[in-house]
Structure formats: C-alpha cells, structure tokens
Amino acid sequence: MQGLFFEKYYFVTLSGNTIETMIVVSTQLEVKQLVLEWQAKGHNIGFVPTMGALHRGHLTLVERAIIENNKVVVSIFVNPTQFNDPKDLEKYPRTLEADLALLKPLGVDLVYTPTNNDIYPEPDTRVFDFKGLDKVMEGAHRPGHFNGVAQVVSRLFDIVMPTNAYFGEKDYQQLQIILEMNRQLGFSTNIVPCEIIREADGLAMSSRNMRLSAEHRIAAIEISRTLAASKTMAKNHTIQEVETYVVKTINAIPLLRVEYFTIANAITLQPITQWTNAPKTIGCIAVFAGDIRLIDNVIYN
After folding, report:
1. Which of 44, 106, 237, 300 has the greatest number of beta carbons closer than 10 A?
2. Domain presence at residue 199
3. Known catalytic residue: 58?
4. Each residue's pLDDT tens digit, 16-30
5. Same domain, yes or no, for 264 and 121?
6. Angle at Cα 162 formed by Cα 107 and Cα 132, nearest 5°?
7. What is the DSSP secondary structure assignment for residue 198, as one 8-state letter?
C-alpha cells in the first residue's frame, strides 16, 4: 500500500486502484463546490466544527456524524473573534497534522482548514441579541465570546450548508447560543447535541487538558467528582447549600480556583433559587487549574 498526496486530496493505492479517502481544502469555494455536488446527488451533509487539537470527544462527534449522514465535513479553525484574551488565542494548541491523522481513518469526506481571511474576507461587525443567554456564566466572564462563536458558526453554516451539525454538551451554554442563532438566522440545519465524553477518571475531555501540568491534571479530577457528589446532595439540600458545597470543596484543593458555579434553568440559563423553578436544572462551572481554564456541567433533573 502506498500513500500519495496530490492537490489537497489524500489517496490510497490498493491493488492498483486509486481510492479517494479524505479531501483537505482551505477555501470556501472548494467546500461549496463539493457540497453542491453532493447535494445534487441527494446526499445529506453532517458537519463537525472544531478548533483543532482534537481528542476523543471530538472524534465521537465525527463518528456519530458518519453514522447519520451520507457525507461528513469537519472544519479546523481557531476563531479569533471568540477569544477575549489575546494570550489565550496565542497559546491555543494548533496540531493540524496530528488532527488530520486522527480524522483520516474514520472515513471523513472533507476537512476544511481555512485561513482567517477565508472566513472573514471583511471584518464581521454583526452583533447578536441572544435574549440574555449570553449575559450569564461564561458570557459574564468572557464578554464578546459568544458573539464571536455565533459569527464563526454562522459563517461556517453558510459555507458548508450542513443538514446536521454536531456539538458537545460540555459547552452547554454555547450549545444553547447556537440553537438560538440557528433559529434567528433561519438556517435549515438540525443541531445535534452530543453527551460529554470523559476521561477514565471523570475529567471532561478538552483540548485545554493537554496544557495541564501533571500536578494540575491530577487535581482537576476533583471537578467532576464534586459535581457528581453535588447531584446526590441536591436530593435533600437547597440550591444555595449545593452551590456553597461545590465552591468550597473545589477551592479547598490548592491547585484549583473556582471562577463561578451557577445552578440555572437549563433552557433560559438564568440562575434559580428553588429546585421547583425549572423543569430542567443544570449546574455549570468554570475552574482555573493554574492558568488553564476548565469548564464542566451537571444535570440535576
């Protein structure tokens, strides 16, 4: 077997036959041309947008998309408009060759790796109104972050024209923002939520985990442990008591610092004070392990 690379197409030569296995392009014109060809043949399109530094969590989204669609597109783009801290943007891991090596065996049809200019040929000045979804939790601590998320996801939807798009529930608030953006802009794309994928010790998988020191990686286990314990505690304690328990327990670990922990209505994302105030309740947390910021969440009912 001989592997060849030619004009951004990956080929595998097997028994004298050349078989196209994965296409990698960097311009929206190439993406649109391929997608329109697929749509003309009646194919539906599954889409997994990523910022690279892929891990098992991303791959489960891709695997589900492959099962549920005729063609699958993955984008790899570190979007500058959603970073409110320039240092965080600079430090975000970029591992394109390793990412492509992970995607190729899965059966992905197309990988889109655009430049900033391809996504934003002109500055994106749109400002979205998310009806308060972006004013709490992550939005309160990262002003402008979700507007940048909506900018890039809407641009990608315009380019890829997906039938189904897959997003992980670890970024639960982001998922609600994308659902609202999808509704407001009238996309026909079906948004598919996918459950959190965790390491064997419970830590939610994240591209940021690779930046943790060995000591901080061990300490970070306490985040998911404490959230799991709080779910049991919630059966006979008030919301205020559960919130206090989570914050104090995690802050008791010297290497960790809670930025926020909020128990909220899982649809409106607004904080609640009584368990009966929402049909579905979620606890969302952000924790600094050293200078690495980790998020997680737990559903209570």
Report:
1. 300
2. no
3. yes
4. 444 458 999 999 999
5. no
6. 125
7. B
170 and 106 co-located in one domain: yes
Task: Let me know whether 212 and 286 are in one domain.
Answer: yes
State CA 27 to chain mean position distance: 22
pLDDT at 5: 41
Q: What is the pLDDT of residues 229-274, one digit of tens each?
A: 999 999 999 999 999 999 999 999 999 999 999 999 999 999 999 9
Give the whole-angstrom CA distance, residue 164 versus residue 45: 6
37 and 145 in one domain? Answer: yes
Residue 238 lies in a domain: yes
Q: Whole domain around residue 82: which residue ranges?
A: 2-194
Specify which residues 72 forms β-bridges with.
46
CATH of the domain at 11: 3.40.50.620
Q: Where are the beta strands (DSSP E) in 107-189?
A: 110-112, 164-168
Tell me how many domains the chain contains: 2
Is a pLDDT exceeding 80 seen at residue 15? no
Q: Are 207 and 232 spatial neighbours (Cβ–Cβ below 8 Å)? A: no
Higher-confidence residue of 14 and 75: namely 75
Q: Of residues 43, 58, 141, 145, which has the active-site annotation?
A: 58
Cα distances from 25 to residues 114, 134, 140, in angstroms, run 8, 33, 36
Residue 113 neighbours by CB distance under 10 Å = 18
The pLDDT tens digits for 217-230 are 999 999 999 999 99
| Radius of gyration for the chain, computed over Cα atoms and rounded to the nearest angstrom | 20
Cβ–Cβ < 8 Å for 102, 54: yes
pLDDT in tens, 262-286: 999 999 999 999 999 899 999 999 9
Q: 């197409």: which residue's tokens?
A: 9
Angle at which helix 96-103 crosses helix 56-68, to 10 degrees, equals 40
Is residue 117 within a helix (H) or strand (E), and if so which, with residue range?
helix 116-119
> Cα separation of 92 and 207, whole Å?
8
